[in-house]
Amino acid sequence: xxxxxxxxxxxxxxxxxxxxxxxxxxxxxxxxxxxxxxxxxxxxxxxxxxxxxxxxxxxxxxxxxxxxxxxxxxxxxxxxxxxxxxxxxxxx
Length: 92
Known about the structure:
Layout: H1 10-23, E1 28-29, E2 34-37, E3 59-62, E4 65-67, E5 70-71, H2 81-90
Antiparallel strand pairs: 1-4, 2-3, 4-5
């Protein structure tokens, strides 16, 4: 992800992903974004989105946009899903 760097906050990464999904035609987020940095990258379903990214942190991102009632995360090989994934990741 081109924008990822120390000093950003988890909520900023989540907001960028939402923007990318919307710009590529997704109607909404498929579920609440999960972005965890440092220790919180190990917490299952962590969604507080309040921590700052520190140099050397591992950052875990689990996000998906909804497109035509489909969630790209759950059906990566379904018709149209590769196109959505390529479109979304092209802008990161």
